[in-house]
Amino acid sequence: MRKILIVEDDLELLNFLKEKLSNRFIVDIAEDGEIAVKKIKENRPDLLILDIMLPKLDGFSILKFVRENYKGILVILATAKDKLEDIKEGYKLEADYYITKPYKLEEISKAIELLFILKK
To answer: What pLDDT digit, counting tens, does each position of 44-63 carry?
Structure first.
C-alpha cells in the first residue's frame, strides 16, 4: 500500500484528509514543517500533500529539501496561496501538482490517482 504524508497545520482539515484517505493508503500526518522533515527522513512517503504556510518551516522549503535529497516522492502543494507568483514558484520548485484551498475531497483524490498513474 502506498504511503502518504499530509503536512497541514489546520487540524480539522488534517484529520478529515487522514480519515478519508486511510481506506486506500497508509497515511501519516505532520502539523508543522520540522515534524514533516523528520517523518520524510524516517518513513520516506510515496506522496506528500503539503501546505505552504506552516509553522517552523514553510512548504516551499520542505519541497526544496525533498527535491534535493529524495528521488521519486510526489508532491501536491495544497494551499490557500492562490496568487500566480506562488503557483509559479511551486512549479519552479518542481511540485507535481498545485491545488488551492478550498478544494473538494474528490479533487485532491483525483490528483493523487493521476500522479500515481503517471509515476508508473
So the answer is: 999 999 999 999 999 999 99
Residue type at 56 in one-letter notation: K
CB burial class (10 A; 0-12, 13-18, 19+) of residue 33?
buried
Q: Are 36 and 52 in contact (CB under 8 A)?
A: no
Cα–Cα dist 48/50, whole Å: 6
CA neighbor of 79 nearest in space, from 87, 70, 71, 91: 87
CA angle 27, 14, 119 (to 5 degrees): 45
Chain-centroid distance of CA 59 in Å reads 9
Domain 3-119: top CATH class: alpha beta
Dump pLDDT digits (tens) for 11-55: 999 999 999 999 999 999 999 999 999 999 999 999 999 999 999
Distance CA 17, CA 11 (A): 10
**In sequence order, what are the residues at sequence separation of 6 or more whose Cβ sits closer than 8 angstroms to the Cβ of residue 31?**
8, 9, 11, 14, 55
